[in-house]
Amino acid sequence: MTIGLSGGGRSGGTVDNGAATSLASVVRRSLSSQTQSDATLGYAGSYSVVNQARGTVTALPSSGQIIRQGQSLYKVDGRAIVLLYGSIPAYRTLHKGMSGVDVQQLNADLVALGYATSSELDPTSDEFSSATKNAIKKLQADLGIADTGTLTLGQAVFLPGAVRIKTVSATLGSSAGPGSPILQATSTRRQVTIALDAALQTEVKVGDRVTITLPDNRTTPGVVSAVGRVATSSSSGSSDSNTSPTVEVTVRPLHPAATGRLDQAPVRVSITTASVRNALVVPVNALLALAGGGYALEEVTPAGVHKLVPVELGLFDDAEGLVQVSGNGLHAGQRIVVPAS
User: Fold this and answer.
1) What is the pTM of this model?
2) What are the structural domain ranges in the chain?
3) 3-class state of residue 259 by DSSP
4) Phi and psi for 197 in degrees, rounded to 5?
5) Where does the pLDDT of residue 18 fall: very low under 50, low under 70, confident under 90, or very high at 90 and above?
6) Apex CA 95: angle with CA 93 and CA 98, to 5°?
7) Which one, of 69, 71, 78, 96, lies nearest residue 145 by Cα?
8) Percent of the chain surpassing pLDDT 70
9) pLDDT at 25
């Protein structure tokens, strides 16, 4: 409806231009602006485990299993292939006298696992010392393999942290050679991924609070942990011209246990992009567009007189259908006209 700035003498709850109306109040409250999107709940990270040993696959983990530092990831010829933590993948046999970043992460792991104290073995050292050799022998003894004190290539897999087995590509009894794929894994960290319309990218930032609605309609809080900078389009070859480019937004649940163990589950995310406190707030449908530009509210005074009050707009909450307003002569408790529900 577009109208001129003039008052009238109609009573509340009347029919104007064929539309039934009712009354609402201007209220003072906190207000949040939210963006809602479909999303996917799962686990962060994706790791491919490639075998480096030679022999026959004799033990494999099951999908969904959690493997931590120092535990057997799988077995070849009955020998455990141990998971160790580190960003550098195993690429050579490690023995006394060697040095390097891969040796440093090995030393840190051996201390973390309790096979040496930090006074016996400096966890920041990149030197393979006698202390390193002694600690490896203890680890090998616990794994039930020959305690040589040398970490042979293929005897360990280095990954950034504990993993959750996603899929297993190898089969028991199959021949395992260097370079053969064994399994796919993720981290154990829960994550929600949003394919956000690229047009909304500027509305979302790292640190924004979100509400995650789970498949069973329970809600749990989260926080935006990353916002992609490169927009991508659907590669499905669909002829749908309405498909918009998207950016990837990741969300960290604040209470991971509350999200359960579902993987690749559809969820709904409401992102709080801005908020105000102690604001004057009205229903969005109370706004009247003025012929000369701008907006007004139709106030009904205690005497039953209708008059227009020009307002300036602030924050919108699309989820609740509310908007922040300000202007001269505007205050909490004023009765305003809204369309009848």
Assistant:
1) 0.73
2) 2-33+275-339, 35-43+189-235+243-274, 47-187
3) helix
4) -55, 125
5) low
6) 100
7) 78
8) 92
9) 96
